[in-house]
Every structure is written in structure tokens, then in C-alpha cells.
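Go through this one:
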Amino acid sequence: VTSYHKSNVILKQCLQFMQAHYSERITLQQIADHVHLHPNYLCSMFKDYTGQTVFQQLILIRIEKAAALLQQKCSVAEAASACGFDNTGYFAKKFKAVMGCGPKEYSLRR
């Protein structure tokens, strides 16, 4: 098995873990434990292969899930909470950075 293939498998497992647990508090240690790697090594490998940090990817997953909830007429606070954000202000800031508009504006567009 090539190291490239092994890395792809590990990255896929990381993404699956994040997809399954995005609504929870997730630590880097939990993700690293899931794929049996040291957290520092996982961070380095993840960044090398994806161009993003583990937590940048987790935020993208959470924002995508929140956008889907907002389309279903969830409130901003409900969407934030359901997607693992404790702070609605922080959620709104990250949502705008990813989606190009705030969550309220996004929900009104749909």
C-alpha cells in the first residue's frame, strides 16, 4: 500500500468522523485517536493533502449542515446550536466567511 493511498484512507476516515460528529464538541485528540495518529502528525498530513487545517474543514462541514437547516426555516440560533456552535455571533461570522452572507440573509434568500 502506498503512503499516498494510506493517507487518502486516513483523510476519508477523518472526514467521515467529522460528518458523523459535527454537532458535538470535537477535539483534535478525538479525531487523531479515531485514525490512530498523533494529533500533530494528523494536522500536518491533513494540511499537506487538503490545504486546510482539520478545524477549517470541520467548520466547513458545520456551515454546510447549518445552511441546509436554514433552508428548512430553522432559526439562526437553532441552526448554530444543532451544528456544534456554542456562540451565535461566532457562528454568524464563520457562516459569512464561508457563504458570503450572514445566516439571516441566507435564510431570507431561500
